[in-house]
Design a protein that fits this description.
With about 190 residues, the chain is an alpha+beta fold. The protein has three helices and ten strands. Strand 9 (about 160-170) and strand 10 form a beta hairpin.
């Protein structure tokens, strides 16, 4: 008689989120800033390859649902826009130093709203807390007394967005892009 291993079979999952990645110039600026802040405030700077702006965090999704997630995301429409991070802020409760915006691009809010509506309609659970656009620069900041002012904003033109998988490895967290969607040209760009 065959042994019943059905209790061992579990649906494999992927920890995923949707995000925007900075262009090369902005990525270098943010990485440099993260290293400076970690040096002056203590803590762990975000690795350059992991710098991103989270749009919507989903968490654990069954691997066999990823194609349906991609199909849902393909239905989201949005236009290109400019992002400008002009503030350095600190969340004391979770010891994070981040780049923030004094003014959020309405196109960014529209993209997040469209994505959340599509995910909700498609039956995908996600973190529904209020969207607070930020880029994490330092985790576990130890000594945050006075944060520097940015001399100039870190800005770039957003032309695409990504589905990213987060995996814990022996060398820390590794982010892998699973898919990418191109934004429509805005009327100001045509």
């Amino acid at each position: 008689m065959a042994e019943d291993n059905s209790h061992i079979l579990k649906t494999k999952t992927a920890r995923v989120f949707f995000a925007i990645k900075p262009d090369d110039a902005a990525l270098k600026q943010l990485s440099h800033l993260a290293k400076q802040l970690a040096s002056s405030c203590g803590g762990q700077n975000t690795k350059q390859v992991n710098i991103h702006l989270t749009l919507v965090f989903l968490g654990e999704i069954a691997i066999d649902r990823l194609d349906a997630l991609r199909a849902a995301a393909k239905c989201v429409t949005a236009t290109t826009f400019n992002l400008s991070f002009d503030e350095i802020r600190h969340w004391k409760h979770n010891q994070i130093i981040y780049a923030g915006m004094s003014k959020c691009a309405p196109e960014l809010l529209a993209l997040v709203g469209n994505l959340r509506n599509t995910l909700s309609t498609s039956g995908f659970p996600f973190d529904s807390r209020a969207f607070k656009p930020h880029i994490t620069l330092v985790r576990k900041a130890k000594s945050v007394q006075m944060l520097p002012e940015l001399v100039a904003p870190v800005s770039w033109r957003v032309a695409d967005w990504f589905l990213i998988q987060s995996k814990q490895t022996g060398h820390g967290i590794k982010y892998t892009s699973l898919d990418c969607w191109i934004l429509n040209q805005s009327s100001s760009q045509t």
